[in-house]
Amino acid sequence: MGDNRKMELPLYSNKLNVKKFENLLSNNDQGYKFFWLEAIMELIPNGNDLFTFEDVINEMIVGAWKTVTHYHLRLGHTVNGNAENFLEHAIRLLYENAKTELKNKVPSRDRLLYLIGKYNDVLEADKIHLTDYVPYRLIKPFMDKEGKAYIDSKNYGRFIAYLNAFTKIDNEFFYDIVEADSSLKRRIHINEEWREFMMQNYAVIMGWIRYNKAIFIQDRNPGVPGVMYKIASEMEAKHKSLKAARELWIATVQLTGRPLHEIYTGKELDINSFDLDHFVPRSYVSNDELWNLTPASKPTNTSKNNRLPDRRFLRSFVEYNYYLYGLLFDNSNNDVALQLMKLFNKCENQHLNAVWATEKLYIPGNSKEQFENILEENLGMVYDSAKLQEYEMWEI
Predict the structure, then answer these.
(1) Mapping DSSP to helix (H, G, I), strand (E, B) and coil, where does residue 148 land?
(2) Per-residue pLDDT tens over the stretch 47-77
(3) Residues facing residue 176 across a β-bridge
(4) Helix H segments across the chain?
(5) Does the pLDDT value for residue 28 go beyond 80?
(6) 3-state class (DSSP) for residue 3
(7) Residues 220-236: pLDDT tens digits?
(8) CB burial of residue 2 (10 Å; 0-12, 13-18, 19+)
(9) pLDDT for the residue numbered 236
(10) Which residues share a beta bridge with 277?
(11) Mean pLDDT value across residues 21-25
């Protein structure tokens, strides 16, 4: 039975067999086909129709880098915590070897390609493993019985010879492979008509690949929230502004005369230059919920970056969030509460979406103990789940 979550390719061509192209992503146990085809799509806009297997694999590493190192998502199966997926394994190897050069930042494409070249000896075994399967199996939907038999028996030399003869007869074939003295130096040649079709429908095809890739990755990371928002290209918009939440915290100072302070250091904060920190990194939760935000200085927020604080700060976090809650629902000071509630209501669409938070946490009548227990239990579960995903720990 097919997966009814998967998106079909909403395209048609009088000249090309789009259905066969759509079937390129079928039988995708390790997800390599998503990244291989996506890498080809990234390479062809540069005027290329001929590139080596290694060019494609390098682009695969670039494309999957943030998924593995920033979002801490698994691409395939693991044994004793180690990746069996060769693409994921290559990325983790590169990350470990280049860690001191990365400085906890997401590197640019050019920087990543430089590092891939620098540590190519370390990555070569995984790269060769990737060439053993995906370049040939990807195009099985275009093959007849004879061609598929060569692929299934891994007789790739015979397959390439057969493929080149096949493409001379049928010019509509997606790509052919040019032989070389090593598997990494073999080259893919994209059929001219297919290349034109891919360029004309670039946005649609990339959205189709990334949407289906997101479903694949979600299935391999069932406990991780918001995978679709992290992977699917149409959902990769820049984070919305935290302006409404900032204004709420600023108003607590203006209305009470009490300064903001940072839970990690206890230092007072300047209301003109503070940040809002995601206690559990945004790359994991994929949202800007109020129950995961706390005021912090810009240096602290930059230092913490995409890492988890020590769990001991969870208690300080929930206590400081109760301070905000107390001001919002303080019946003894209705003027302050009413003004803050107006700003709180402006947070509704962006910062207040979790059902447990709107129905149990941010409601009138919670005692300090009730509020802190609800927040600590729910945020604690998210924290522990992120830790299981191997998010790095942050030290002040």
Answers:
(1) helix
(2) 777 899 999 999 999 999 999 998 889 888 7
(3) 189
(4) 18-22, 32-43, 53-69, 86-102, 109-118, 120-131, 134-137, 145-152, 156-169, 192-200, 202-220, 227-231, 243-256, 282-285, 298-304, 313-328, 334-346, 348-351, 355-356, 368-388
(5) no
(6) coil
(7) 888 888 887 777 644 44
(8) exposed
(9) 45
(10) 294
(11) 87
Amino acid at 175: Y
Token duo for residue 395: 């030290």
Phi, then psi, of 297 in degrees rounded to 5 = -75, 155
What is the pLDDT, as a whole number, of residue 329? 92
Return d(Cα 329, Cα 341) in angstroms, integer.
8
Q: Are 319 and 372 in contact (CB under 8 A)?
A: yes
Q: What's the one-letter identity of residue 354? A: A
pLDDT at 315: 96
Name the region of 103 (left: φ>0; alpha: ψ -120 to 50; beta: rest).
left
Beta partners for 52?
A: 187
CB-hemisphere CA count at 13 Å for 130? 31
Q: What is the Cα Rg of the chain in Å?
A: 26
Dihedral of alpha carbons 200, 204, 207, 212, sign:
negative
Residue in the structure block whose two tokens are 């299934």: 152
> Burial letters for 225-234: b for 16+ Cβ neighbours within 10 Å, e otherwise?
bbbbebbbbe
Neighbours of 376 (CB within 10 A): 17
At residue 190, the 3 state secondary structure works out as strand
CA dihedral 155, 82, 396, 375 (to 10 degrees): 110
- Nearest Cα to Cα of residue 34 among 188, 313, 233: 233
Task: For the chain, report the end-to-end CA distance as a whole number of angstroms.
Answer: 51
Do 267 and 261 contact (CB within 8 A), yes or no?
Answer: yes
Q: How far is Cα 102 from Cα 91, in angstroms, rounded to an integer?
A: 13
The C-alpha atoms of residue 175 and residue 192 are separated, in whole angstroms, by 9
Residue type for position 128: I
pLDDT greater than 80 at residue 239: no
- Assess whether pLDDT exceeds 50 at residue 1: no
CA–CA distance, 337 with 344 (Å, rounded to integer): 10
8 A C-beta contact, residue 105 and residue 160: no
Domain ranges for the chain, please list them. Answer: 18-235, 243-388
Q: Give the integer Cα–Cα distance in Å for 219 and 265.
A: 39
Q: Which of 6-15, 58-67, 297-306, 308-317 has the lowest mean pLDDT?
A: 6-15
At residue 293, the 3 state secondary structure works out as strand
